[in-house]
Each structure stands twice: as C-alpha cells, then as structure tokens.
Amino acid sequence: MGFATDAIHIGQEPDPATGAVIVPIYQTSTFVQEELGKHKGYEYARTSNPTRAALERNLAALERGRFAFAFASGMAAINAVMTLFKAGDHVAAGRNLYGGTFRLFERVLKDFGLTFSYADTRQLEEVERALRPETRLLFVETPTNPIMEITDLAAVAKLAHRHGILLAVDNTFMSPFFQQPLELGADIVVHSTTKYLNGHSDGVGGAVILKDARLAERLKFIQNAAGAVLGPFDSWLILRGVKTLAVRMRQHNANGMAVAQHLERHPKVRKVYYPGLSSHPQRDLARKQMSGFGGMLSFETGSLENARAVLKSVRLCSLAESLGGVETLISHPATMTHASVPAEERKQLGITDGLVRISVGIEDVEDIMADLDQALDQIPN
Ligand code: P1T
Questions:
Q1: What residues contact residue 199 under an 8 Å CB cut-off, 6+ apart?
Q2: Whose CA is nearest to atom 19 of ligand 1?
Q3: Is 144 in the pocket of ligand 1 (CB under 6 A)?
Q4: Which CATH architecture has domain 246-376?
C-alpha cells in the first residue's frame, strides 16, 4: 500500500473488543491476569500498552523498519539509543545537532564515560577522520537544525558499515514522508514526534525505529528498564496526527518553498537556508535522498537588532521554540534552540545572532508572506 494508506491504517485496525474505528486510549496502568502468567498480552503499562503498541506498529511501517519504540520525548528516545552503548565507547556525531542533543551528549552522557566527537558530516573524509577504534555509532541529523546542511545518508551508511559502526539518523525535520533513512542503509532512526509526526503542537514525544531484531530486543529491554515511555493519551494524539502526515507534509513543502523563494528576493534578507533553493549548495543531494524539502528554513538578517525587530513584529507567526505544527513558528536559534552550543561553535556553524528560523505552517501562504514582509519592514534601512 502507499504511504498515506499505511499512515491511516497500519496499527489502527478497528478495536477487537468493541469495533471502535479509532484505537482507544487505554488509560490504564495495569492489566488483570486470569491466573498466574495467563493474560491477554499486556501486564503492566510501562512494559506495554495497547495504544502505544498501535503507534509503535504504525511508526515502524512508515519508516520502513520492523520495530519501533515510543518514548516520553525526542530527548528520551535519543538517550535510550545512547544507553545501547557503554563507558569507553565513542560516538562520532554531526557538528550541527539540535542544541538539546549536544547538551545531552556533552553535559550528561560524558559523565558516564561515553566519548563524543563532532564532524562536518557533509565531508566523508571528515567523518572517517573522526572514527576511532572504540567508535560504535555515527549519529547525524539531516537536514541539520537550523542551517539545513545535508549528509549523504547512503554514503555515510556504507562508510559506517565498512568500519563495523552503526548509523543513527535523527529524521525529525523530514519525517518519513520525505526521507526514509533505513532504506538508505541507516540502522537506527530517531524522531522527536513532538514535531511533524504529531503535527499539531499539542504533545511531546519521541520514537526509535530499527530493523535489526537483536538491537530491537535490547532497546525494548531499555525502554522497559529505564521507563521513559510515552503515555497512552500522547500516543493517541500522534496516531491521530499521523493520519494526515502525507497531506500536511505536501503543504508544508509547498509553503516552505514559496516562503524561501519570497525571502530570497527580499532586500532585507541576506541569505536563506532551504534545501529546495537553487542557491543551496547541496540541492542535488537533497533531491536524490529526499522526496521533498519540507517546511523548515532559516534566514540571515545581519544582526541581533535586526532579528529582534523581526521577531518582535510578527503577528501571525508565533515566536516560539519547536517546529512541525500546522501553525507557523518563528525562532532565534542562537538564544533559543541552540543556546547550549558554545558561542564559538555557533559562529563556525553559521548560527549567528542575526539568524532567524521558521517552521513554515500550512496556513494560506500569502498570509505568512505578508506577515514576514511587515515584520522585515521594521529592520532599519
Ligand atoms: O523536544 P523533544 O521532543 O525532546 O525533541 C528533541 C529534538 C530532537 N531532535 C531534533 C532534530 C529536534 O529538533 C528536537 C527538538 N527541537 C526543538 C525543540 C526545536 O525547536 O528545534
């Protein structure tokens, strides 16, 4: 079946107990046992819950994996992946990660003996140089948050496997509608489901999807043992969101492209970062491994004062962290999402004080552009 059909149906068969067309919210912590060891497949809701299980089946199918595990947030999902490894292991990561991922690596996991180094994963030689005998994982985001750099997933998967290393990809920005890293050779996909998968900015969650049964068994053990599981109501919200993922992503993509082109023509905008623009240095690679460019873009206003003027003046666009919802959100990476990245590294990445990020929503695109125009007018000439 096609993607949209799978999104609506897989894991979402009518409820066997009642015939309910929509998977019910099984808001229960435990399940009765008829006698010792005899039950209907569920014992305790940290271990498994039918609403969460439905979501996990659905996400496994959409990412073309075999197993999925839902967590309480994107960060909980990434943390669970990291606990597949042990003290002394090394992780090579992309240099431009979501600030919270960098913070988890540098300020939590380092204290437990994992080591990290960062590479410009656009350059295969740089990735290879970052590898050490004790490297176990290569962790990348593509496109990156917020500079929209693209990593060639098929190429880094090959490289990782040649060295006996796993490849994990944070696919939050594209969603499985536009990019399927497991099909390109990745071993692990992580998501902040808070974003496009939920799509309505009304729940925080995360997921890990994989193909390998042994890895999945270990991750399932970790999910239950560490316990950062997604609750039934949040699982239900994502199931509901995923049903419209295909139509939403098409519109995010159309609006994203229109806003990116509009901003690129605007005299107050110095540079636009969007993989669908012909000015993006990796547009061909983006076209090859993604089936759309999505709704995320960033643009350079030239200074903190200019960025501040824009962010203070928007009316339709909301100044807020997060992304991937139906409404347009606008943010300032240097002081918001990427504040935990040291200033020197931010500068190297291009996360300047004048950089503004937009999660382009699916409102009428003329309204989004008009709002940005009136806000950009506040930048002095
Ligand atoms: O917020 P949470 O659900 O824990 O997900 C963390 C996360 C992981 N990976 C990527 C690529 C992300 O963008 C995020 C969260 N990002 C934001 C809150 C943001 O505004 O960029």
A1: 241, 242, 244, 245, 248, 324, 325, 326
A2: 322
A3: no
A4: Alpha-Beta Complex (3.90)
List pLDDT tens digits, range 109-140: 999 999 999 999 999 999 999 999 999 999 99
Determine the atom of ligand 1 nearest the C-alpha atom of 76.
4
Q: What is the pLDDT of residues 60-92, one digit of tens each?
A: 999 999 999 999 999 999 999 999 999 999 999
pTM here?
0.98
Residues involved in catalysis = 46, 98, 170, 195
Instruction: State in Å: Cα 175 to ligand 1 middle.
Output: 13
What is the 98 CA–ligand 1 centroid distance (Å)? 6
Chain region(s) in the chain for CATH 3.40.640.10:
3-242
N-term to C-term CA, the chain: 54
Parts of the chain belonging to CATH 3.90.1150.10: 246-376
**DSSP H helical ranges for the chain:** 3-9, 50-62, 74-82, 99-107, 124-130, 153-162, 175-178, 213-226, 232-242, 245-265, 283-289, 304-313, 343-349, 365-376
Cα-to-centroid distance, 75 and ligand 1 (Å): 7
Q: What is the CATH number that goes with domain 3-242?
A: 3.40.640.10
